[in-house]
Amino acid sequence: MTLLLDNDDVAGLISMEDCLDALRVMYREFDAGRALTRTRSDLLVPGGEDETFSLKTQDGVVSAEGVAAVRINSDLLRWPTDGTGTRRQKVPRAGGRWVGLVLLFSTSTGEPLAIFPDGVAQRMRVAGTSVLAMDALARREASRLAVLGVGWQAEAQVLAATRVRRFTSVRCFGPTEDRRVDFAARMSSVLDRRVDACGSPDDAVREADVILCATNAISPVVRPDWVLPGVHVGVVKVPEVPRAVVDAVDIAVVHSPLASPAVIVARGTRSRETEPTDDGALDATTAHALPELTDLLSGRLGGRTGDEQTSCFVNNGGLGIQFAAIGALIHRRARERGIGRELPTDWFTESVHP
């Protein structure tokens, strides 16, 4: 039988600690050549109502777990601009909801093991990746965290970061006052410690040891003058950080060149992120020349050697093997606990040779 799970099921099956552990094992397998993945593919064509339709796919195989995964997203995109810059917006056109699926397959039989939405797994794997790098690069005594962004992904960044460092101060900033105040109140309750909402990004990052960005901006968020001695900066997309910051820090690391998507745009399609800019943002070519996260986690690249050194991690995108590694744990736990809806596997297999 093939399991059908929803996001609530997934959230109840794995914790952030579980995600971090699964990713650590996955990166060792990836570094050893036993886990395979490839570049994400984004196909963009005109959508409705001045929007762009995006079909995103990525996949990966983790042999040690006996699973392969395919992630598929079907999105309508906009790029609104306001006083804070241009941002990427996914429009929930599917009855007010978004569409993202993970298909998990067995490498021993080829059959589909599970189907589940990508939302919770995506949130955890982005935060987990950023925080594995933070754990390797930030000062052990780091105690002050600044978070730029107050959305769902920013929550996950805070949850993951507080698993590997004992932060005594957590500050956040988002351009909308109501949202940042709500974020601070919500995270204060979750963490059982005070989280402060700041009226400006400068206030949020003042005296911070770690600055984590989790925004939907497609222009630089981090400023070079924020990178004071000892600071670690983490961003969840390339445009959030200017090249000046990457050039200035002592240690800069990128997730993986394979994590940057291959974007194919149909003629006449709007795609703000593929247009040239002069805003000083880091470009993909420069990012891909940086040492990779596997270099850092394997020890081939040393971390900081002094408290005054600065560092930056560019989480330039996801890898399909992350969904395979996390999916394997989700499927195993669901089977153990009897969670999910069972569907006949025959619905997804065929009697004719394809």
Task: Give the arrangement of secondary structure elements.
Layout: E1 2-4, H1 7-13, H2 16-31, E2 35-37, E3 41-46, E4 52-62, E5 67-78, E6 81-82, E7 85-86, E8 89-91, E9 99-106, E10 112-117, H3 119-137, E11 144-148, H4 152-164, E12 169-173, H5 177-191, E13 195-197, H6 201-205, E14 210-213, E15 232-235, H7 243-248, E16 251-254, E17 262-265, H8 284-288, H9 293-298, E18 311-314, H10 320-337, E19 341-343
Parallel strand pairs: 1-10, 3-17, 11-12, 11-14, 12-13, 14-15, 15-18, 16-18
Antiparallel strand pairs: 1-19, 2-4, 3-4, 4-5, 5-8, 5-9, 6-7, 9-10
Question: In a few lines, what is going on in this structure?
Answer:
The protein is 31% helix and 26% strand. It has 354 residues and is an alpha/beta fold.
What would your notes on this structure say?
There is one protein chain. This protein has 354 residues and is α/β, with parallel strands linked by helices. The protein folds into two domains: 2-121 and 319-348, ornithine cyclodeaminase, domain 1 (2-Layer Sandwich); 126-257 and 274-314, 3-Layer(aba) Sandwich (Rossmann fold). Helices cover 31% and strands 26% of the residues. The protein contains ten helices and 19 strands. The chain has helices spanning 7-13, 16-31, 119-137, 152-164, 177-191, 201-205, 243-248, 284-288, 293-298, 320-337, and strands at 2-4, 35-37, 41-46, 52-62, 67-78, 81-82, 85-86, 89-91, 99-106, 112-117, 144-148, 169-173, 195-197, 210-213, 232-235, 251-254, 262-265, 311-314, 341-343. A hairpin with a 2-residue loop joins strand 6 and strand 7 (85-86). Helix 2 packs across helix 3, helix 2 crosses helix 10 (320-337) and helix 3 packs across helix 4. It is globular, with a radius of gyration of 20 Å. The model has no long low-confidence stretch (mean pLDDT 94).
